[in-house]
Amino acid sequence: MKRRLDFVRKKCVKNNYLQLINFIIFVINRFPKEDDIRKQWLAFCRINEHVLNTVTKLCANHFREEDMIKKVKRSYIKPNTVPSIYGKKKKRSLQFDSFNNKIYTKKKKEYNATDNTSVTVNEYIPQSIENAQLDCQTSSEAEVSQPCIDIIEISDSTVKDNTLLKVVNDGLSTSPLFTSSRNEDVYCSTFQIPTKAIQEPQIMNEILKRKKGSKKKYVPELRSFALTLNFYSSKAYNFVRKKFRNLLPESSTIRKWYSVLNGRPGFTNEVLHALKCKVRKMEDPIFCNLVIDEIGIREQIEYDGNRYYGYVDLGVNSNTTNIDNPLPARNALVFMLVALNSHWKVPLGYFLINSLNGKERASLLEKSLELIYETGVILHSLTFDGNRVNITMCTNLGANFDIGETFKPYILHPITKEKIFCFLDPCHAIKLVRNTLGDKLILRYNEKQIYWSNIVSLQNLQETEGLKAATKLTKKHIMYKNNKMNVKLAAQTLSESVSTALKFVNQLYPKQFNLPEETALFCSMFNDAFDLLNVRTKFNNKKCKMALTSDNFNELKSYAANIIEYIKQLGTSTESILVSQRNTGFLGFIICLTNMFDLFNILKEKGFTYLLTYKLNQDHLETFFSALRSRGGFNDNPSAKQFETSYKRLLVRHEIEASDKGNCLINDVQILYASSEKKRSDGLFVEVDDVELSADAFDRDYLSRLCQLSPYIDEVVKYISGFVVRKLLINICHVCATFITANSTNSILINLKNRGNLVFPSQDVIKITQFCERVIRANYNIVRTKNNIKAILTIQIYREICDSVFNNSKMTEHIMQQDLFDNHKSELVKSIIEIYLNLRLFHEAKCAIDVGRKEYVRHKYKKLIHFKHQ
């Protein structure tokens, strides 16, 4: 006989998104012991007496509500009550959120407990749907049928069934989600927790399993978690391990995991073996790029009881005890493989050096190529920075970087004799180009001048006006000499946005500035060259940021040829830039733009479909260095021993990430805890009566003090208005969207910046944002000091501007059926004001610290410490 369980399921909407959480409630009643009432129950259920046992029960849905005694935790039936309602479908209303992209479909699952017993459960399983059009409002109702089953019987034939039910009940009473959310009508499934909202990480599940006392091998996820946490901080690891009752592995266990690796200078045999295994597992061939770079280390000699650390060590039959005067190591030269058709990288090895000439580096490079060939990895490219010794390394192996008929930007493989194309890191190249323009001040292109002063004038104009012409330029970009190593500053200086801003200022003030177009062209050309060599995704709207494929090969090669010809025409006042002493960055771009197409031709013959040029950059090794330094704490310049230890730990499975930026005594003082509960705001905007408006802050005649905006500010505000509109289009109705957008614009800056995706703001939006800017400038003395300045400005701007915008008949008709003081028009105006004020106030706070600052020295002194090897 099949016996079934009936579950009542509850559903709720919390925090504006739908959560389906199953909660089991046993609404069942035992058969009465009184003979007369018992016979009536049996007659109602149409079963015989011999079928009953001590656990046969009847669902409460067969009783009338007046027959029930309702309690807080459980409901009971009145004595001598007889069931009177036969099975019928009960309907209930569920709330659906239109912003949720998931719907729930009803499926039936059958769980067989024994040969004679089965449990059927109706459960709702979420199914994600993409691009589904749900025909419903923000809060709509759907009728869901829930079947009511006549007789519910729970068999105690097996201990397993009873144990399951006990676990279910115990889970209800101890579940943190249920106990903390009881008053909010949020319930948790007790059979299991399959929903993503409350699913626990696999690491925590593994830790909880180990509470049972079973000793088994740690899973890779738990090993990775332990290794990563121990790498960042041993104290933090000990704290977490203590809190989890020593369920994490001991520190000695972690040291044993590391001990299997050699980690000494030289090529790492464990890595080479892992590469061979990787090649055997993969069905397709593995293509890689070899990256070479060095990291400065601290000059420090250490002894651990067995050997010395800190001397020069090339890893091949090197023994410092046999050398009379061994030199202390100043750098670590690292070789790394980066997969071109996969998502991994691995360091091949490292060498502790004091100084290494080009011939010695060439020997190490040849040895690395031979070892890589033995693993089965296919290698056709090599990346290094613009250091002269690296160029000498390649010329010793047969390369020739002289522009002309003898130009040969590749070397030959020592075994296969195939081409290995050389790439100078584009990130270093863009820095060198920026430094050349900033130091020389003037460059020449076809007898026309390129001025660094044009970029300085643009930054001065932005600083004077208080707003940027959609650029990233700051004082840091102009005073770059203390931040020469920062790639971001160089890329943002020679960028498309700076090129567009120069054209914009030249059109706006033709007599005052008269900036030559060559400076804007210079920025645009090197921006596109850098984009071609820094492609991270296969598809992009801009052609220079698309992956290299057979379809766009000819187009991109033709455009790259134009950039190469442009670079060849550049020069100083006396000579061509390619024969000058500052030619490395310009030569690097020519080498990379030439080799990327030749490399793709070879890879395409071996089954390669597209090439992401970001894989050919040195960033992969730089992030590895960042992870190495992250273990040093306050001193991110590791010694040789610290480098070896960190190197071994990074080779083991981990989840260590590079730092996005470059960084007290322990005491027993207890922290005074404060509540972390989020404060609830009653409204988006502050009421007028809640804001104290002092006479000094705002005068009644402040409108007469509003300044007129300059043509520059007027154009920039129009451009910002487009961003405000784009933000609003996400959350407003389609009718209001027609009032804030336009089909065209007369803005010079918007037309110059437009690549087809910009949003054109309407005149009403521009009127509001321009008025906001005028009010901000009229009250500049309190903008950076008044705490509630946003509320003050919002109220005053709304009072003056609300009645003069969006006054067309369509808007009047749209808000006719809405509240007089809280309609779409008022909310639209308030939203425009709020978004614009947020942008401006954040900008003012960011610019406040730069006022009066003459130079930035933190980055400079940090790098000087590295270069001093201390």
Summarize the topology.
Blueprint: E1 12-14, E2 17-19, E3 28-30, H1 35-45, E4 56-59, E5 68-70, E6 75-77, E7 90-97, E8 102-112, E9 118-128, E10 139-146, E11 151-153, H2 159-174, H3 176-180, H4 202-209, H5 220-232, H6 234-243, H7 251-259, E12 266-267, H8 269-281, E13 287-296, E14 302-303, E15 308-309, E16 331-339, E17 345-353, H9 358-375, E18 378-384, H10 388-396, E19 410-412, E20 419-424, H11 426-440, E21 442-445, E22 448-451, H12 452-465, H13 475-478, H14 487-493, H15 496-508, H16 517-532, E23 548-549, H17 553-568, E24 570-571, H18 584-605, E25 610-611, H19 619-629, H20 640-651, H21 711-728, H22 734-740, H23 748-753, H24 763-778, H25 780-783, H26 789-801, H27 809-814, H28 824-848, H29 858-867
Parallel strand pairs: 13-18, 18-20
Antiparallel strand pairs: 1-2, 3-4, 4-11, 5-6, 7-10, 8-9, 12-17, 13-16, 14-15, 16-17, 19-20, 21-22, 21-24, 23-25
Helix pairs in contact: 5-6, 8-9, 9-10, 11-14, 11-18, 15-16, 16-17, 17-18, 21-24, 21-28, 24-28, 26-28
Textual characterization of the structure:
The chain is α+β, with helices and mostly antiparallel strands and 870 residues long. Among the domains are: 28-77, no CATH class; 219-260; 266-318 and 325-425 and 617-655, 2-Layer Sandwich (Nucleotidyltransferase, domain 5); 441-608, no CATH class; 711-852, no CATH class. It contains 29 helices and 25 strands. The strands form nine sheets. It has a seven-stranded mixed sheet, sandwiched between helices. The longest helix has 25 residues, at 824-848.
